[in-house]
């Protein structure tokens, strides 16, 4: 019995670690991409490509539990999540408030689509209100450090990034807990 409990704990810890790594990569490469967008166009494509690979990595991880179709759908939604940041960053850089507001609406709408996807996959562990708030918080915190990077306030961008990162680790843990609750036979 002790060996089985230990194996279960090991499998659970492995999932938590893997999810945290995937979402930490999402945060790390998002920050690098936003910074390069504003301040280092020569590096932008390489960091963007790596960020987009991370979206596929997350989708592949989810596919192991929810199937290939679900993994592909999450990859698609997350890729769109990254692509929709470009008009937001462009409008902010150009000082175009109308375009910024419109592109932010699109970005928040995509965040809601991701929240809806998660709730549909696991409504007991990831209820609609919680996933909506989680995804809205992700956009809010990303916008905060992006504004800091645009204005060149790097000290503040790091503080705001730390908040965004902490929020994302809470999200990664919530996703792990939900998967474990939904698939106890795998843990």
Q: Beta-sheet strand percentage?
A: under 5%
SSE string = HHHHHHH
Radius of gyration: 17 Å
What global shape is seen? globular
Pick out the low-confidence regions.
none
The main sheet comes to: none
Number of beta-strand segments: 0
**Count of domains:** 1
Helix content bin: over 70%
Number of helices: 7
Please, what is the average pLDDT? Answer: 96
Question: From the helix content, strand content and strand pairing, which structural class follows?
Answer: mainly alpha
From the N-terminal CA to the C-terminal CA, the straight-line distance is 14 Å
Brief account:
The protein is an all-alpha fold and 187 residues long. The chain contains seven helices and no strands. It has helices at residues 2-39, 41-66, 68-83, 85-94, 97-121, 128-151, 154-182.
Report on this model:
With 187 residues, the protein is mainly α. The protein has one domain (2-21, 52-186). Helix 1 packs antiparallel against helix 2 (41-66), helix 1 (2-39) runs parallel beside helix 6 and helix 3 runs antiparallel to helix 5. 90% of the residues lie in helices and 0% in strands. The radius of gyration is 17 Å and the shape is globular. The mean pLDDT is 96. It has 7 helices and no strands.
């Amino acid at each position: 019995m002790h060996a089985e409990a230990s194996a279960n704990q090991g499998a659970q810890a492995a999932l938590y670690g893997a999810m945290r790594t995937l979402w930490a990569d999402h945060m790390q490469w998002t920050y690098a991409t936003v910074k390069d967008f504003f301040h280092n166009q020569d590096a932008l494509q390489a960091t963007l490509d790596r960020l987009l690979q991370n979206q596929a990595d997350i989708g592949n991880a989810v596919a192991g539990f929810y199937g290939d179709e679900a993994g592909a759908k999450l990859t698609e939604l997350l890729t769109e999540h990254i692509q929709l940041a470009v008009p937001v960053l462009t409008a902010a850089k150009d000082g175009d408030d109308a375009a910024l507001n419109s592109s932010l609406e699109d970005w928040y709408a995509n965040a809601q689509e991701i929240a809806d996807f998660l709730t549909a996959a696991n409504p007991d562990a990831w209820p609609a209100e919680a996933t909506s708030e989680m995804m809205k918080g992700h956009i809010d915190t990303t916008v905060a450090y992006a504004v800091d990077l645009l204005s060149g306030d790097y000290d503040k961008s790091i503080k705001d990034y730390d908040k965004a990162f902490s929020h994302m680790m809470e999200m990664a843990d919530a996703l792990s807990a939900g998967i474990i609750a939904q698939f106890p036979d795998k843990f």
